[in-house]
Amino acid sequence: MKKVLVLGAGLVARPLVSYLLSQPDIHLTLADMDEHRVAQLLAGHARGSALRLDAADDDALGSAVAAADLVVSLLPWTMHVAVARHCLAHGRHLVTASYVKDEMRALDEEAREKGLIFLNEIGVDPGIDHMAAMRVIDGVKRKGGRVTSFYSYCGGLPSLAFNTNPLGYKFSWSPVGVMLAAGNPGRYLRDGMVMEIPPEKLFEHYWLLDVPDCGTFEAYVNRDALPYLEVYGIEGAQSMYRGTLRNIGHCNTWNDFKKLGLFDRERTFDFTRTSPRQVLAALVDSNGDDLAADVAAWLEYPAHHVTIKKLEWLGMFSDTPLPIPEGSVFDLFARVLQDKLVFGEGETDLLVQHHEFEAEYPDGRHEHITSTLIDNGIPHGDSAMARTVSLPVAIAVKLILRGDITRTGVVIPVWPDIYEPVLTELAELGISLVEVCEA
User: Which fold does the domain 128-253+345-438 belong to in CATH?
Assistant: First the structure.
């Protein structure tokens, strides 16, 4: 019986927990501060154990890691390195769905020396995107060709029937994570030219994308795409882009939120005495008599502009303080979004991933290849985001414990011995990509 420790019982944990509990040779310990959530996910399963754990308690974390054969961290990415160090100390494998940061990458040599795999970026984005990309890229190479252009897009959204708020968005993962990502810079390669997008321009640099059988979306750059030229083995490509998909209107709205200072993590208020309306008035230097007009003027918009309507719908003109203590404007707005942009009971989400490749061959042939994943959540069941993030993690855990994945060090799933079995099993679970090749 192999022992797996899963750290974190948040929004994406349920499919992973269910999958691992279905494996007869795995005993699962689920650790979180929320005992009720843990109990719900384990549902009294004979091979499931609950552990109340504050991951910030380093001694308790180390003890939990020591008792496992493999650790899955669904914690915020900032905590992964602390988990990884305990894994090194106790000789335990580690799997996460998060991007590899420099601090994690620095542990590669020690993990190799100890025969451990620290498999990261095995969610949906990053994760399925890597695996789907490499399946196409390796296929082109096997036919003697090379990829000259690669555009990758991914987005988690409400399903069309449940796109029921003026922002066209609902949270299927951490609201704080979404807001923090809004402050990232972007970089990509277009027709041989490096495009640098500073954080303040992130939502001004977007375009419209038609996804087959799904719809039209806004696409804006997701972090730095250039390192993936080497990761994917397509160093000679003239274009390399990774982007986020959102519904029409998202970029202008979030750009306005940033201009208003709603993502400010430095300016603080006592929210027990300060209402959202008062905070917004302070941000635009308004006396509050006609706040909507003052906000519109601050943004250089007419008073009837849709951003004003969206702020009103969110409750930012409310005189009622929220039940949160002193904190930053960021903290207030995160709570506002968390309270308003939620999925109701039985509502479903939509996960869209779309890749576009250009390939050329020595005989002069060219191919345009697309790879598209469209997955909807299950009514009253798992969200598409939860399924596509956590099922690749779960499958990888099984493959590592059974010895089917033998790589060591800090790894991402760009190798056939990882992506082939994971993509094959995902397809069996109803998560598959449609590939189309046009000469």
Answer: Dihydrodipicolinate Reductase; domain 2 (3.30.360)
DSSP labels for 34-77?
-HHHHHHHHTT-TTEEEEE--TT-HHHHHHHHHT-SEEEE-S-G
CB 384 within 8 A of CB 154: no
Q: Where are the domains of the chain?
A: 2-119, 128-253+345-438, 261-340
Q: At what angle do helices 80-90 and 58-66 cross, to 10 degrees?
A: 50
Tens digit of pLDDT for each residue in 38-66? 999 999 999 999 999 999 999 999 999 99
pTM for this one? 0.93
Report the alpha-carbon distance of residue 13 to residue 308 in Å, rounded.
Answer: 36
Answer whether residue 34 shows pLDDT above 80: yes
Q: Is the Cβ–Cβ distance between 154 and 126 less than 8 Å?
A: no
* Segment holding 419, helix H or strand E: helix 416-428
Q: Are 413 and 127 in contact (CB under 8 A)?
A: yes
Q: Give the integer Cα–Cα distance in Å for 203 and 195.
A: 14
Q: What is the pLDDT of residues 265-311, one digit of tens each?
A: 999 999 999 999 999 999 999 998 999 999 999 999 999 999 999 99
Q: Give the residue numbers marked as catalytic.
A: 125
CA max distance for the chain: 72
